[in-house]
């Protein structure tokens, strides 16, 4: 081994380790800070998180789970059907609809949320978890439809044709033959929808008014923004950990398929 | 629903030069039509969602910007007050300036760091998997949660940063990173965004890096190109579409910054870190003037659309 390649290898290890420590330390610190009490370690901060006046309540968690479940289910349903349509069919208006869906990315969030607030009021979905979920599904569509279209396009046509020769109708072909073939895409889309809806802040801030309807993210942030005096930082870190643990667990288990879905499907177009 | 001719390419277009015997034309056209109908049926939920929750609000925000539109009560037309008043709004002027400054600084810094990380973990070596996971992990924490995390991390009450710097002797006394001065508030937000988004952008740049065939590098090596030359003349040009995508996302994301300033700095001190989206929120839900908020939204929207069209044009010309 030459001297220069040895130096570069050491350089890689030293830089890599230092950067990994920098990236991981805030996470480790928040776990540590959430457990530290005046005298040692314990769950006092978590206790205050759930019992203090501005703290989070069980119904906030139920709200978050409801919104996430609705968003993930809705995104998977719309994106699977839509991705199948865009990837395998030709119909009038197909390209226009696809372009419009992608245009959601260009016309961002804040600029139309004001109008969505008014619109949801008109159709009786003001201050409602269903209305919020519908908006979150819409914001997920560009990425999800793109991803699912590429996934369906990558499935060999022979698979679909042989199913039809065997007498499957279109819907049962989709469910029994196509869905198993696009599973990595579905996992990526579902995981992305969950991570976004679980921790989304701006859309619920605008669309939900009553504290009963607040999601957990909104309730935890409220502990900071509603306090005019001193902030209970330790309870805040407990809230951060409480919010992050489900996401970190899911991410750890699914990182492989998530990254694979990303690298194979999302960005080839 | 059965198709008599399973269309090979899934298209309704008539195929040229038939070689094998095919069913009569009427049949084929019927099959193609029913298949088109089926496709349209599958696309209906997408069309409803995009129409109802994207196109209608887009038109509505334009319509609202032409009215005096209080949060409660009936709107009245007041063209073009909402637009002329933007110029008079001092907060808008300072927010525009701040948002542009933040966008430039953030994009440059985030791009350099994300590209550096991507180059570091590009090759398969020992420990690369661990490094990639370490850089990606912050992505799993929601951005609002991450802002709260940094609020604590940078606080003097429980955060270790100030203690650490005091021990080294870089600072003395009490320092309030997130609200002490406008520079340190901006810096705090930038460190937070860097931590939360560098890994995500690294992932996208990595897919671009790995799409470059090894033979290209091999050829450059045989031609005697140095590492830097290879990077400048081979890697960068071949990465152009990916770089454009990443830069567009960074710029759009920065122009729409909200969470980090709303939570971490509260727009302060003295509104010095108030972003444009924070002004929109304030107009709508604190001053209860939805029309004015819609006016600023439309202006921001126009800038972004123009920017994206230019971006697309540049991209198309080069590729």
Entry keywords:
heterodimer, A: 269 residues, mainly alpha, MetI-like fold, disordered C terminus, B: 319 residues, 2 domains, two-stranded antiparallel sheet, 13 helices, 2 strands, globular, disordered N terminus, Sugar ABC transporter permease (chain A), membrane (chain A)
**How are the strands of the largest sheet of chain B arranged?**
1-2
CATH superfamily of the largest domain in chain B: MetI-like
CATH superfamily of chain A: MetI-like
N- and C-termini, Cα separation of chain A: 41 Å
Sheet bearing the most strands of chain B, described? Answer: 2 strands, antiparallel
The top level CATH class name of the largest domain in chain B: Mainly Alpha
Looking at the structure, the CATH topology of chain A is MetI-like fold
Instruction: From the alpha carbons, calculate the radius of gyration of chain A and give it in angstroms.
Output: 23 Å
Strand content range of chain A: under 5%
Query: What is the ordering of alpha helices and beta strands of chain B?
Result: HEEHHHHHHHHHHHH
* Structural class by SSE content of chain B: mainly alpha
The helix fraction of chain B, in percent, is 55-70%
Beta strands of chain A, count: 0
Q: If you average the pLDDT of chain A, what whole number results?
A: 87
β-strand percent of chain B reads under 5%
Name the average pLDDT of chain B. Answer: 84
Helix content percent band of chain A: over 70%
Q: Categorize the overall geometry of chain B.
A: globular
* CATH topology category name of the largest domain in chain B: MetI-like fold
**Tally of DSSP helical segments of chain B:** 13
Which class of chain A in CATH terms? Answer: Mainly Alpha
């Amino acid at each position: 081994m030459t001297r220069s390649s040895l130096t570069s290898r050491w350089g890689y290890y030293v830089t890599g380790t230092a950067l990994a420590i920098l990236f991981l330390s805030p996470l480790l610190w928040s776990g540590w800070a959430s457990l530290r009490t005046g005298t040692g370690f314990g769950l006092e901060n978590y206790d205050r998180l759930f019992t203090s006046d501005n703290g989070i309540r069980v119904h906030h968690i139920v709200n978050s789970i409801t919104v996430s479940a609705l968003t993930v289910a809705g995104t998977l349903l719309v994106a699977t059907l839509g991705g199948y349509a865009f990837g395998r069919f030709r119909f009038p208006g197909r390209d226009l609809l696809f372009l419009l869906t992608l245009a959601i990315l260009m016309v961002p969030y804040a600029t139309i949320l004001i109008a969505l607030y008014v619109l949801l009021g008109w159709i009786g979905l003001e201050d409602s978890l269903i209305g919020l979920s519908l908006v979150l599904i819409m914001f997920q569509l560009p990425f999800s439809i793109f991803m699912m279209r590429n996934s369906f396009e990558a499935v060999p046509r022979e698979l679909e044709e042989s199913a039809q020769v065997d007498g499957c109708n279109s819907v049962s072909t989709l469910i029994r033959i196509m869905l198993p073939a696009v599973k990595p895409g579905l996992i990526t889309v579902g995981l992305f929808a969950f991570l976004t809806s679980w921790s989304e802040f701006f859309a619920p801030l605008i669309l939900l008014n009553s504290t009963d309807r607040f999601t957990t993210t909104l309730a935890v942030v409220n502990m900071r923004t509603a306090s005019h005096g001193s902030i209970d930082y330790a309870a805040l870190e407990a809230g951060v950990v409480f919010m992050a643990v489900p996401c970190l667990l899911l991410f750890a288990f699914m990182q492989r398929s998530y990254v694979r879905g990303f690298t194979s499907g999302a960005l080839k177009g | 629903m059965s198709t008599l001719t399973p269309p090979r390419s899934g298209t309704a277009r008539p195929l040229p030069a038939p070689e094998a015997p095919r069913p009569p034309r009427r049949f084929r056209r019927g099959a193609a039509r029913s298949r088109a109908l089926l496709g349209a049926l599958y696309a209906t939920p997408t069309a409803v969602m995009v129409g109802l929750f994207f196109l209608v609000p887009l038109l509505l925000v334009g319509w609202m910007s032409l009215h005096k539109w209080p949060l409660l009560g009936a709107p009245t037309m007041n063209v073009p007050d909402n637009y002329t008043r933007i110029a008079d709004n001092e907060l808008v002027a300072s927010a525009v300036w701040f948002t542009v400054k933040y966008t430039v600084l953030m994009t440059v810094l985030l791009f350099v760091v994300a590209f550096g990380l991507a180059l570091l973990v590009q090759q398969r070596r020992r420990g690369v998997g661990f490094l990639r996971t370490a850089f990606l992990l912050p992505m799993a924490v929601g951005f609002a949660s991450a802002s709260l995390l940094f609020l604590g991390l940078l606080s003097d009450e429980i955060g270790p940063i100030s203690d650490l710097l005091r021990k080294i002797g870089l600072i003395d006394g009490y320092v309030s990173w997130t609200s002490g001065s406008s520079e340190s508030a901006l810096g705090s937000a930038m460190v937070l965004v860097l931590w939360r988004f560098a890994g995500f952008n690294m992932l996208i740049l990595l897919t671009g890096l790995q799409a470059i065939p090894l033979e290209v590098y091999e050829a450059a090596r045989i031609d005697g190109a140095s590492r830097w030359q290879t990077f400048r003349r081979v890697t960068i040009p071949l990465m152009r579409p990916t770089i454009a995508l990443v830069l567009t996302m960074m710029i759009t994301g920065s122009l729409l910054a909200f969470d980090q300033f709303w939570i971490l700095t509260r727009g302060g001190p003295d509104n010095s870190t108030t972003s444009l989206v924070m002004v929109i929120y304030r107009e709508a839900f604190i001053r209860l003037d939805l029309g004015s908020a819609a006016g600023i939204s439309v202006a921001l929207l126009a800038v972004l659309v123009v920017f994206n069209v230019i971006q697309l044009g540049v991209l198309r010309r080069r590729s």
